[in-house]
Sequence to fold (138 residues):
Amino acid sequence: MTTANFHARLERIQKAQAQAPAAKTADFRAQGAAGIAASRNIRRIRRQRRPIMDQLVNTSLGVLLGALVAVALIGLSMEGSLWGPGTVWHDIAYYPTLAALGLAPLVMLISLFTASSRPGFALFSLGYLSGIVVPLFI
Fold:
């Protein structure tokens, strides 16, 4: 029974091919050539690699700002510094410096989710966090 269905199907296919025109019309060929020409004119958008200097600028800016926050944190705990304990500048610099310290892990977490679309921000946040942590351990 399955062979009968198979042979019947083959016969239908052969009849359909016999009824189809043997040669393509000129109009059909013109449309096909136009489609190929149009596809060649489409510019492919390639991902371009960013130069190393752009990445270096983001990282170095993060390290520089992180180092400034680390210096401010160290100065908050030293007695002889301008913004050390007991000075007027201590009260002014205390909360912004602690906010900058708390911002580092938050920026790093945000960059984990946006690293594929904004690699410069991810490198900035890595530099910022390392710019804070490294001077505090020295």
Q: What stands out?
A: Helices lie at 2-19, 26-41, 52-77, 88-114, 119-137. The mean pLDDT is 82. The CA atoms of residues 7 and 13 lie 10 Å apart. DSSP finds five helices and no strands in the chain.
